[in-house]
Protein: 4-hydroxy-2-oxovalerate aldolase
Amino acid sequence: MTNERDVLITEVALRDGSHAIRHQFTVKQVTDVAKALDEANVPFIEVSHGDGLGGSSLQYGFSLTNELELIEAAASVVKQAKIAVLLLPGIGTMPDLKQAAKLGAKMARIATHVTEADVSPQHIALAKDLGLETVGFLMMSHMAPTEKLVEQAKLMESYGADTVYVVDSAGALLPYQVKERIRALKDSLKINVGFHAHNNLSLAMANTLVAIEEGATRIDGSIRCLGAGAGNTQTEVLVAVLDKLGIKTGIDIYKMMDIAEELVAPILEKPQEITKDSLVLGYAGVYSSFLLHAQKAAQRFGIDSRDILLELGNRKVVGGQEDMIMDVAAEISNRGLVHEH
Ligand SMILES: CC[C@H](O)CC(=O)C(=O)O
Ligand SMILES: [Mn+2]
Structure:
């Protein structure tokens, strides 16, 4: 395979996909998938709890396997790929990042809400000090106007990030909105621009292509759509589409198809598709990682999960406010009782 790449893909199934399987990855699953992705020449493979380093908790869901063990295992089987880790300041800590680097992580993605880049300077600086390739990851990008996004991206650039990502956490952005955001970042930043999609409105591929057209060179995908909500841009499909467009990823399409079919499909509890709930995530602009939490709350209170998700969207609830999901479910359920009597 060639190492000539126009676009550098980060495969996120072993991190974003953790949400979809309730953080139940085993060491064997992670090593098998990471080794195969490495052999397919994927340049970056992200491994962490779905909510990033330190995410294993009552609030976000306990991991079956300690993520540090998963990171170490993945790092031990890759030859050319770099292992990336996600860190949300406030969930993960500086010691977590140091430990991940010691175990073989080579890229740190520091994620904040789109209006809160100013919580990330210490983490970005530490990642750089550790010699890691450093990415600023602006989540829920649909919630801020483009000027705000640019302001926040510039902050991350000033802290030392090598790349800033527009992250469509809810899968809520429409193609023209992606176009405007990526173009504005390309016009305002000197560093790389990246894009991370969720497929809740079936727009992940279209949005990713628009982002690339506007100059994004760092792109996330999840193989077999193993990501939160309806998953991300499906990596093996993206690799094929980019190949048809003459855009080089350096990734082996046949190997990616085989990994999707033979290694990743069996990990899924059910095939990834746009269900009524994942559609509502995109429609209402809700964090994709809230999906299973909302379904659990709906079951507990005997209510429709779509009502919970719509209300979370109305309230503009963001990452870190997972406890609101139960609160909202309880309120909806109480309101229901009031109506009945
Ligand atoms: C909770 C972290 C989140 O899953 C990061 C991410 O992939 C996103 O915001 O889309
Ligand atoms: Mn995501």
